[in-house]
Write a structure and sequence with these properties.
Layout (H helix, E strand, L loop, with lengths): L2 E9 L2 E7 L10 H8 L11 E5 L6 E6 L5 E2 L3 H13 L8 E5 L2 E9 L4 E10 L20 E5 L2 E9 L3 E6 L8 H9 L9 E9 L2 E8 L3 E3 L3 H13 L6 E6 L2 E7 L4 E7 L1 E9 L2
Parallel strand pairs: 2-3, 4-6, 11-12, 13-15
Antiparallel strand pairs: 1-2, 1-18, 3-4, 4-5, 6-7, 7-8, 8-17, 9-10, 10-11, 12-13, 13-14, 15-16, 16-17
Length: 283
């Protein structure tokens, strides 16, 4: 029986099955089915996504990330840090920074540590997008998607939307632990306002440079962390006057340092870890 080598990795608890597809041996058309099977936490390896490390057209590498429901995400902040660690430690590149193609565009990653052990990765996440047409979101495409009403079971919420190459809605709350995450997260994710659905983040502001958040990811559900979501949350916190441009984001799985530069570019710094390696049977 043919088997597929993989490595299980995580970025502050957001876990992935990473597969080297740089030799073209993996047909991406099969990835949705494979992702549903291998990410199953009872019958598979278990993870928040399947990541294929592929050859890029404009860069040495391209990341494609598939959610546990088989849908493809444009971008994954915790996942791309894992990719940077993978290609550096496997000796696939000596470039620094490392350019990597994603569905959200070409990103650059700087690794901290050594080629044998990458500890932290700083990612140029690109420019945050704030207009409805950029999210995407219904309504005037030229209007900023800031502090609009959302209806969920038993409550009315106020959200601010940001695109980090994928859609996010940030809802500020008094206490993140009191949020009925699955109920509200499911409702907002599938709200008709968002034609491609959306990631949802509930954020508690702890100070001018510190936030705490919980995440409901599109296609994955509750996760311990979301890198693009942390970026979107700090951007939303700044544009609504709640924090400064640089803030520490506390997520259930760990912390990320986020900087929202004056030119609109967002930088994320955080760890990536390898867990174990294995082989998945292919039918």
């Amino acid at each position: 029986m043919k088997t597929l080598p993989f490595i299980k990795m995580h970025g502050i608890g957001n876990d992935f099955i990473v597969v080297d597809a740089t030799d073209g041996s993996i047909n991406a058309d099969r990835a949705p089915e494979l992702s549903r099977a291998i990410n199953d936490r009872k019958h598979g390896v278990g993870g928040d996504g399947l990541i294929l490390v592929m050859k890029g057209d404009r860069a040495p590498f391209r990341m494609r990330m598939f959610n546990p429901d088989g849908s493809e995400a444009e971008m994954c902040g915790n996942g791309i840090r894992c990719v940077a660690k993978y290609v550096r430690e496997r000796g696939l590149t000596t470039l620094d920074p490392i350019p990597i193609e994603t569905g959200a565009g070409l990103l650059e990653l700087e690794t901290k540590g050594t080629s044998e052990e990458v500890v932290n990765v700083r990612v140029n996440m690109g420019v945050a997008r704030l207009l409805r047409g950029e999210i995407p979101m219904t309504g005037d495409p030229t209007a900023q998607a800031s502090e609009f009403e959302l209806e969920v079971p038993g409550a009315r919420l106020v959200g601010t939307a940001v695109s980090m190459g994928n859609p996010h809605v940030v809802v500020f709350v008094e206490a993140v632990e009191a949020v009925p995450l699955e109920t509200w997260g499911t409702a907002v994710e599938s709200d008709p306002l968002f034609p491609q659905r959306t990631n949802v983040h509930f954020v508690q502001v702890l100070g001018r440079s510190e936030i705490r958040m919980r995440t409901w990811e599109r296609g994955a559900g509750a996760t311990l962390a979301c890198g693009t979501g942390a970026c979107a949350s700090v951007v939303a916190s700044y544009v609504t006057g709640r924090t400064e441009r640089c803030a520490l984001a506390h997520l259930p799985g760990g912390d990320l340092e986020i900087e929202y530069a004056e030119d609109g570019t967002v930088y994320m710094t955080g760890p990536a870890e390898s867990v174990f390696e294995g082989r998945w049977p292919l039918s």
